[in-house]
Amino acid sequence: MIKINNKSLLFILATTLFLGCDKEFPAIEALEGTQLSFAALKDSTKIGVYRFRTSVYVEAYVVSSDTSGHFFGKIVLQENDSDTALGLLVATDLFETSLWYPEGQKVRLYLKDLYVDQKTLGLSVGHVFSSFGNLAIGRLPILFTQEQLVPISGAFKSIGPKKRNLLNLSDNDLQTLIKIDSLIVGPESLGLYFANEKEETIRVFYGPNGQKININNSGYADFWNSPLPDKWVSIKGILSKVRSKYELEIRYLSDIQN
Fold first, then answer.
1. What pTM value is reported for the model?
2. Residues near 5 by Cβ (< 8 Å), separated by ≥ 6?
3. Are residues 88 and 195 in the same domain?
4. Alpha-carbon separation of residue 225 from 88, 191, 194, 228, 249 (angstroms)
5. In Å, how far from its chain's centre is CA 2?
6. What is the model's pLDDT at position 17?
């Protein structure tokens, strides 16, 4: 009897759904619009949640990856590999996103009828819902994601991290790939795993001068039960922010190096 694990089942379901669609990703040439800069995208949120009603788009590179079980329900895009690059988070119901949007893939995100905001997490794009009377960015349905977020054929680029330290982090780095050297896990977490099983888990790392940053780990990641490093390390990850505190989310275990 053939045994199918959870990841295999998800892959089969995703492939079946994708192949069963009436159409695959629309051809870039078939879609119209005017390219918008990330700076202009950010400016549009100055008065809060903004809805795009015209045919505009941004181009960027995928810097997240869910191959290890992180980044469920979201895709992170970065405009380029410059030190001042901006990034954005696309919320989605699409699972196994790295099958359709692998790390380094250049994409075009069509913004018409989408909403953008930059509260706390940095730039976020998706549909909108009301939460306690306030508008918030929600996930795009699967087919809508594939219609709005289109891979540019043959365009790949390895985006290196922006080098930062705990003293020069800024909100301009939110939803971009950064690297911080000289971090060590806090004494309260020594000997623990990266995460508690099936739970989102915060582990605190410290810099040489006592500054700290939260590392957000998924209890569904395939490395959740790997022991935390007990030496000084450098960490690459996507920068986010929760309640005024910066967080890093690694993509896979190799984002942490001795």
1. 0.87
2. none
3. no
4. 29, 11, 6, 9, 16
5. 34
6. 42
Which residues, 6+ apart, have CB-to-CB distance to 136 below 8 Å?
49, 117, 119, 128, 129, 130
23 with 70, same domain: the answer is: yes
Beta strands in the chain (DSSP E): 34-35, 50-51, 56-62, 74-78, 87-91, 105-110, 115-117, 124-131, 134-138, 149-156, 162-164, 177-185, 201-206, 212-217, 233-242, 245-249, 256-257
Rg (the chain; Cα; Å):
19
Question: Pick from 142, 217, 176: which is nearest to 62 by CA?
Answer: 176
Report the percent of the chain where pLDDT is more than 70.
88
Among 118, 116, 110, 212, CA closest to 166: 212
As a whole number of angstroms, the distance between CA 70 and CA 223 comes to 10
Among the candidates 116, 141, 156, a domain finishes at 156
Residue 174 has pLDDT above 70, yes or no: yes
Domain range for 250: 162-257
Task: For 3-55, write each residue's pLDDT tens digit.
Answer: 445 444 444 444 444 444 434 565 555 567 899 999 999 999 998 999 999 99
Helix segments in the chain, DSSP class H: 6-19, 38-43, 97-100, 142-148
Q: Which CATH number covers residue 177? A: 2.40.50.200
Burial of 149 from C-beta contacts in 10 A (0-12 / 13-18 / 19+): buried
Backbone angles phi, psi at 6, to 5 degrees: -65, -40
Q: Are 195 and 217 in contact (CB under 8 A)?
A: yes
Do 177 and 117 share a domain, yes or no? Answer: no
Contact 229, 211 (CB under 8 A): no
Q: Are strands 162-164 and 177-185 parallel, antiparallel or unpaired?
A: parallel
